[in-house]
Amino acid sequence: MSNPSLLILPGDGIGPEVMAEVRRVIDWFGDKRGLKFDVSEDLVGGCAYDAHGTPLTDETMAKAQEVDAVLLGAVGGPKYDKLDFSVKPERGLLRLRKEMDLYANLRPAQCFDALADFSSLKKDVVAGLDIMIIRELTSGVYFGEPRGIIKEGNERVGINTQRYTESEIARVARSAFEMARKRSNKVCSMEKANVMESGILWRDVVQEIHDAEYPDVELSHMYADAGAMQLTRWPKQFDVIVTDNLFGDLLSDLAAMLTGSLGMLPSASLGAPMANGRPKALYEPVHGSAPDIAGQGKANPIACILSFAMALRYSFDKGDEATRLEQAIEKVLAEGYRTADLLGEEGKQPVSTTEMGTAILAALD
Ligand code: NAI
Ligand code: MG
């Protein structure tokens, strides 16, 4: 059998810096754990525009459709701000998400004990926290028609439409139940069925998919506003949360920030299962290209490394190896290794991007 394939797209700014550390981690798993990947690397974003006049070539797009998982760094930067909208670096990322039809956006909120003091919430509320928000990414009010600003008599009216089909709800519900089976088997679905018809349909379809296909998973429903309160009151009551595009946008940002720095936050976007059963998948840190620190060796590589851990768990069924990697990160944080973004006001000497990577490799050993 051939090795699983990975397409690496480091991108712009700090993207290549943090991805270099991921490459070392991938090599470690190949050498020490016999977990070999066929890795190829390509351009996306501003660097692709510089080389080819487009932020994503058709060849790279085709490659992304073929591989088992795509790992992306970040795109964009001030150098490209003046470019025409059609060739902006972000368009490369949007094209990947759209053409791969990545409808389930996974945003974990995981708190490493050593960083629990970093949270704005009390330590015992966040210590040990490990939840997963799944946001529907390709439909809902950001895409629904009719939309626009129209004139009604003397005033303007802004219109957006929340619209979900049964199949759109069903497929993201399945992603959530599949995810739950790889975690602690619990899903909470959030909508506003009390005031929105699309919410009533959402609740019904999630329940139907559950009863027909995933009766073993524990399912609950919650209104999204109550969910926001519960997420800040006692987030550890949740495991997997599944919700629509708009509520998911808000709730995933809220949940992510329970736990610390942008430099720590991974994400995944998943689509339909491929012929080999693996979902189409793109893994990337939540952060951008951080032009203010690019090229200075200051970037925290952990968000990108944790994105690779998510790939191990959700594309390659290597949850045990993902845990090994997460535990190595926990260890270096407990030992006091901090990139600049994790230091706050402490005035200690930060480690560089490469030093953090080296410490994580040492912890893996
Ligand atoms: P950003 O996430 O790049 O940076 C925000 C702040 O967080 C900066 O102060 C940065 O130094 C810091 N930061 C981000 N990642 C860090 C890391 N790994 N380690 C240490 N510090 C880190 O967001 P910003 O400044 O709004 O956008 C910069 C560029 O990135 C823009 O061109 C934007 O369009 C692009 N962008 C790209 C994204 C992507 O590729 N998915 C997502 C967000 C922004
Ligand atoms: Mg957002």
From TrEMBL:
* High-level lineage: Bacteria, Pseudomonadati, Pseudomonadota, Alphaproteobacteria, Rhodobacterales
> What protein does this entry describe?
3-isopropylmalate dehydrogenase
- Superkingdom classification of source: Bacteria
Q: What is its EC number?
A: 1.1.1.85
| Record keyword Nucleotidyltransferase present | no
Q: Which organism is it from?
A: Salipiger mangrovisoli
Its main localization is cytoplasm
Tell me the function of this protein: Catalyzes the oxidation of 3-carboxy-2-hydroxy-4-methylpentanoate (3-isopropylmalate) to 3-carboxy-4-methyl-2-oxopentanoate. The product decarboxylates to 4-methyl-2 oxopentanoate.
The pathway entry for this protein reads as: Amino-acid biosynthesis; L-leucine biosynthesis; L-leucine from 3-methyl-2-oxobutanoate: step 3/4
Q: How is the cofactor bound?
A: Binds 1 Mg(2+) or Mn(2+) ion per subunit.
Give me the reactions it catalyses.
(2R,3S)-3-isopropylmalate + NAD(+) = 4-methyl-2-oxopentanoate + CO2 + NADH
Annotated compartments: Cytoplasm
